[in-house]
Structure formats: C-alpha cells, structure tokens
Amino acid sequence: MKILVTCPPMLGMKEQFLPILEKYGVEVFCPDVVQTLSEEELIQLVPGFDGWIIGDDPATRAVFESGKIGKLKAAVKWGIGVDNVDFQACDDLNIPITNTPNMFGAEVADIGVGYLIALARETFYIDREIRKGNWPKNRGISLHDKKVGLIGYGDIGRNAASRLVALGMNVLAYDPGVSSIEDEGIKLGQWPHGVEDCDFLFFTCSLNKKNYHMLDAKVLGECKRGIRIVNVARGPLIDENALCDALKSGSVHSAALDVFEIEPLPMNSYLREHPLCIMGSHNSSNTIDAVAKTNEVAIGKLMDFLGIARI
User: Is residue 311, in this structure, part of any structural domain at all?
Assistant: First the structure.
C-alpha cells in the first residue's frame, strides 16, 4: 500500500507520524508542500496512491476522478475544515472519505482570544515600534463588558465563548444550526442583527455556499465604528476588498486574520500596510500536542478504510 500525505502541519512532524505508518507496513510519500499543491499537480500525483491524507489542497472532482482511474481507494481530510474537498464526488465515485472532527477547538480558540486581546491593547503594534527604537504608549480598550459577535458555535466557538465569558465579555453567538444555547453568558442571535452593538466580531464557523462573504460592505456599514475583527475560520467568510476599504476609512479599527481569501497573502494586499492589523499563516491549530493526536486519528481512519487492522 502507498500513502500520500499533503497536510503541512502533519508534514512538519514527520518524526512523529512516519514511525506509526511504518508499523502498518505502508509506503509513504511526503511532497514538499508549504500550503497546498495545485489541482494540476494533484491530478498527476494522486492516482499513484492507495490512500491520501489531505490538507487544504483543492481536492476537487477532477482530482478524485483521476485517483479513481488509478489506485486511490480512500482518503481522510486532516483537520475539521472540509470546504476544499468535494465529498459528493467521493460519494459518486465510491471513495470512502472522512475528516477528523472536534480536534482543535481549544487550540484555535486560544489563538483567537489571544488575537482579540492583542487588538484591544494594540500589543503587536507596540512590539514592532519598540523593535524600531520607539517607545509607544498606545491607549487600548478594556475587555470587561465589551460585546463580541461570535460567528459559529461549534467546537471552536464553544471553546472561544467560555474564554470570552471568563474575561467578563458579553457574547452574542450566531449559528443557524443552533436553536438554543443554555451556556451561561451567551445569547443567540440571527446574523447580522445586533452587529451594530458589537465591539468585536469573531469568526469560528465553517465555510459553505451560503456564508461566502457573509461580512461584506453592507454588513460592515451596519457595524459600530471602530469595530475589531478576528477570523480564525476561513478567509472567504469576509470580503477582503470591503474590509480593506473599511480599514482605510477607519470604520473598522483593526483585524486579526489567520486566514485569507488567497493564501499565502498576496504581497500587494493593503492588509500588510495597516499598522494595527495582525496576520497569521493559517496556523491556529498547529500545536505539537494537537497535531500529534490528529495525525494518529487520521492514520487510524485511513487504515480502517483500507482494511488494515489497527495496531
């Protein structure tokens, strides 16, 4: 059996997962991947493998069709996000596939709340200025009693909410899949009603056809002036052009983005110029502990699909 691994966090810990796969007696190929391979590269590569552990690659119908013509028998999407994977194509082609849900809620929430605090107190800006030889005394805002619009109340959202409530913040959760919330300190809203009262927007939801660019120029125009925005979910939830315009006008104070519409972030993006914005590299789930655990889960699920007994 030959296994293809294209998930960057997993590839960054080869020393942890390769011995596991060696015990199963399978051959593993790890391409040099920074973020994703292209669809064209995958169409050429995937047919040569029995199993595929997918990262954020464009796992399209065309890729799976090429895999089906070749050796591909099963796949696992490493992590929780599945918007880049054509699950319907896998179903049509009879290729078993799954993701690894509920693996990174705490880790991503930690990064998101860290970003929120940093936006409130402008700590990243202060750090950069000190490195230049300056000594800034920026006056931030307190967190207590501030209102957060939390978009998504799944594993990440719930973990974020518990941390925000512990900070004394008021949380308005938006999630069309949730009919009621009993957790203390959390109110349930209907997007985008109530954004005009929010001091922060905090995105933790999955991406689908219905919520693409859910934060657009119209919604940004309804927000409180000076709102701060955190996104640790998926880049296309936000219309980046509209966000850049709002940052330029000052209607949005700042944004902390671990994800973008185009990744890596283009060099000509205005987001690179704004002094108070914070940028990540789609890396909020990446801790040694969580990646190791998810590697084991992904490998176990793939072995099950391939009919190889668990060790």
Answer: no
